[in-house]
Amino acid sequence: TGVHDTIGRDIVNHCVNDILVQGARPLFFLDYLGLGKLEEAVVSEVVRGIAEACKENNCALLGGETAELPDLYGPGEYDLAGFIVGIVGRASLIDGSRVREGHVLLGYPSSGLHTNGYTLARHIIFDIMGLSHDSEIPGLGKSVAEELMTVHQSYLPVLIDPLSHNSIKGLAHITGGGIPGNLQRVLPQGLGAVIDRSSWEIPPAFRILQEEGGVSIEEMDRVFNMGIGMIAVVEETETSSLISSARERGSDAWVIGEITDGGGIEYK
User: What fold, for 5-91?
Assistant: First the structure.
């Protein structure tokens, strides 16, 4: 597509979310870019995206490494990796130990596929549907590139205040493995969760991928975020204020389930 700044923003925001789930705020970020041949225009755009995302997340970009490896990467190929360090006080650390039966699950919307499920999405869109990157996705009103390259959202702006007030008992960043694979990791042994699938509207892009690819709902749940990018475990009394807080910051949140006795993630 010739667009390279979005991947820089993706990797920073993903890393920020990954430490946010433990209550940490980002301090600094470093990047690694490996490519077959150094193309200044491409590198400049990638780094610009990284720098802009770092600024938006109040995170210092300390530096990084650019490696030219022609024997490893083909023309036009590159590999981008990120490293982030954050800080959280020991008393504010989110490790799941405060999660209890009856706590509520608050789901925050994703901006798209985020950074997971692209192998399956590419197979469906390019191989099964026969589209190209500039084709309009039927029924969506967006091109393939616009939908697939939507930037992975950072949840720091929405969650920074609730975290500072210790309103959140657990956080799950919904990436590879979907809700079942990521929510379970933040729950103490002996606790599970029930998810109400009707509590939020699954974005059209996921429905199109499911229908066109003939993918079971169980596999969709394992591969994609299905419209939920972050889940907070909170006390029921906190839900109204947290939803209002999210909306004040231009986002949204919904009660999508609750913590139950017994392991496993179930849908209803």
Answer: 60s Ribosomal Protein L30; Chain: A; (3.30.1330)
